[in-house]
């Protein structure tokens, strides 16, 4: 009788296994390269042919991932990239890193997971392990993925293995990366968990196993809800502090001197990225199944969603104080990425603010060293290219609006040559011409 678990574990231990990563975005690509650099053969699958062609040519499309890493993996033949989904049948481990966005009604959109499962189902084989890394609500792996796989008459934990291990990527973080960030892992059965641990333990410094997939799913949501709620709190305090004529940044600096019981969070123009603006709503949606209304989480979401409108208000006020109407004013946006030093625009509040300014009749341009051109977006159409920051260009604008504080910006040059500045990131000291919002 075949012992599928032992066979799989042996292949994972001695690097004779083929790892398949589906979805080569900000999560999947660094994970695939991580496996390559630990001497695994990796099959990368994606539906975006442009992305596939870039990788196969040895080029990176993510600013903080060096092209040399991709080129080495391609040249060493440790990485093969295509859109051929039937290649899944050759793999020993399949890792799903596909998007899990929200619908327009803030409900979970699992269409990418469902479509991927549907496409790979005919090619699944006994003895494989499937790991879901996409952020989702507690119960997804057990209630959605498991029944799907069982359509092939596989016995989960016996001849097929299923785990959930949430991604914990932090784009642009120079201190922590895919390898050094501890990995949470839960399995449908103990055998699944054991196989999952072997899948990751050679490529991740520390794998932390939990009792089941629901705990792992909830862990990911807790991490991001913790941040969303605290950012919501500090954003609300920012609005209040402004009304009270108190510099909240100075307050945060002072509070941070306490050596225990305080963690600093900072206000901003709103939430962005693939996690914090989205993940809390996965839990609020699931909570309704249990008759609960998660008021605390939803209130934080309301506050954070309001912040772009608050920035618009502060911008309008500063222009008015200096004799300008917002309609017709020339405004330069600094930074359209959702966080500094990355080229990721997903859910960026900068785009929302730019659209609001446009609707008010402002003439807007932007500068972002990481995003030379704003691509076509689902909700907005801006069609702009990045403006270089020079002494001459800064003097053309009535107001500069700092939304993403990239380290590459020359802040002294900006301050000296800008008529008015609205600073949403606390880079400048407030003055008559500088408003912190």
Task: Describe the protein.
- By secondary structure, this protein is α/β, with parallel strands linked by helices.
- It has two domains: 4-209, Rossmann fold (3-Layer(aba) Sandwich), CATH 3.40.50.720; 240-436, Rossmann fold (3-Layer(aba) Sandwich), CATH 3.40.50.
- Helix content is 38%, strand content 12%.
- It contains 14 helices and 13 strands.
- The protein has helices at 4-13, 28-37, 49-56, 67-75, 111-120, 140-149, 190-200, 213-243, 248-255, 279-287, 295-321, 349-359, 391-395, 411-417, and strands spanning 18-22, 41-45, 79-82, 93-96, 129-132, 161-164, 183-187, 207-209, 330-334, 363-367, 399-402, 421-423, 434-436.
- The strands form two sheets. It has an eight-stranded mixed sheet with strand order 3-2-1-4-5-6-7-8, with helices on both faces.
- It is globular and about 85 Å long.
- The model has no long low-confidence stretch (mean pLDDT 94).
What's the helix and strand layout?
Blueprint: H1 4-13, E1 18-22, H2 28-37, E2 41-45, H3 49-56, H4 67-75, E3 79-82, E4 93-96, H5 111-120, E5 129-132, H6 140-149, E6 161-164, E7 183-187, H7 190-200, E8 207-209, H8 213-243, H9 248-255, H10 279-287, H11 295-321, E9 330-334, H12 349-359, E10 363-367, H13 391-395, E11 399-402, H14 411-417, E12 421-423, E13 434-436
Parallel strand pairs: 1-2, 1-4, 2-3, 4-5, 5-6, 7-8, 9-10, 9-11, 11-12, 12-13
Antiparallel strand pairs: 6-7
Helix pairs in contact: 1-7, 5-6, 8-10, 8-11, 11-12
